[in-house]
Amino acid sequence: MQEQIYLSNTYCFYKKSNILDVVQYRGESWIALEKNIFHPKGGGQPSDIGFIDGIKVIEVKKNKEGIVFLKLQDGYKPLGSVEAEIDKENRKKLAALHTAGHLINAVMKCQGFSYYSCNHEPRKSRVVMQLCSYVDKCIIGDMIEENVNNIVKKGFPVTATYSEEGLRVITIGHEIIDHCAGTHVKKTSMIEEFKIRSIKVKKETLSVGYDCSHTLH
Ligand SMILES: [Zn+2]
Prior knowledge:
It is built from 3 helices and 15 strands. By secondary structure, it is an alpha+beta fold. The chain has 2 domains: 3-86, Elongation Factor Tu (Ef-tu), domain 3 (Beta Barrel), CATH 2.40.30.130; 90-214, Threonyl-tRNA Synthetase, Chain A, domain 2. The protein is elongated.
């Protein structure tokens, strides 16, 4: 059984853990930790970056059974207990970008748009909605920026619970509720410098490019 610490605590950046498993995949060695702090690539969010015993983690993937495996630089194969560390500033940045993605989605849903896809990679972060009507790019960009910043200022708590079916449910304030397995800030006021980077219309979609930071603490 692997404990997914990244799901319960965004701000756990360091953990000692035993090795749960080592597997070979396409000629590479991948390890799984009993106490896992690494977020795997998925749901529009990149993998966490970090180290195991000082050796760089270069890829993080989750298998069909939900076990998260790490690929280490140079095929390093640790034994027994290890020290796992993720890049703190990168984790905080991704949590801020990811949470802001929920806020954009919520603001757009209020305008009648439906979710299409997302990407929370720094400098490429965007939320893509299905286009439901003609839009003025400037007006909609200003509207999203203003509404998201209003939610940010209110400092709504961001909490995670599980449904009866075992799905993780993220609640922001009282009204924003999404199924999600990503990492989030504790409250919306931990997001800062939110701004719209671009608004693009492509075929039947509206792509909202954005950027933001995490507060210092
Ligand atoms: Zn999320």
